[in-house]
Amino acid sequence: MSKTYHPYHLVDPSPWPYIMSCGVFLTTLGAVIYFQYSQIILLLVGFLLVLFCMFLWLKDVVRESTFQGHHTKIAVLGLKLGFLLFIISEILFFFSFFWAFFHSSLSPSVEIGVLWPPVGIDALNPFSVPLLNTVVLLSSGATVTWAHHSIVSGNRKDSIRGLLLTVILGFIFTILQGMEYVEAPFSIADSVYGTTFFVATGFHGLHVIIGTIFLLICLIRLSLSHFTRSHHLGFEAASWYWHFVDVVWLFLYVCIYWWGC
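That's the Cytochrome c oxidase subunit 3 sequence above. Prediction below.
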């Protein structure tokens, strides 16, 4: 029987999707147990399992794309469409947070004093740390674009510099947001304002951490010469994700920090 050749990549059987789903389940279950009973062991086990699986799964993907040549043009097109659909799902994810925020802020209920911010809530100054974080994140968007253009033009040194600056700015943003949370005069339990504020900005901060790790892996791969001028899908996906994080932060800053104060 003759062998059929095609441009699609049929992946080999892998244990990582199953292991990752188990890790996510344990993390979720561990978080519930931690919130209810202050037992953190199961949460740590699930989180470590997710990190372990993520590392090995990404290692397999890098091997398939960089060394085995499985990422053909049609395979890359499918991966790009899949990642764009993932970003769309993330947009809808944040849309629900903005819906909850405007539902509560445009028509404040009697329970919170018919005011927004509610009675007793001292909102953060939007022109202090939040504005600084906006400048940091927008600057990181410029540096990741610089790195992308440098890769396309074959300038390896500038691409490494731009990507390194982006990773550093991502770390700075996370540190500043953590300091802001520590010094905030309200908590997640302080009415619907505290809940919507910390859930929306907290999940964005989680996306910044994920994007920074994503870009850090790309920086390591770039230093190992894994990317070429025409084949750098991993970095391209990371830059798309980072620009998505930038845009979401602009909406968060304008709506929750500035307008919502």
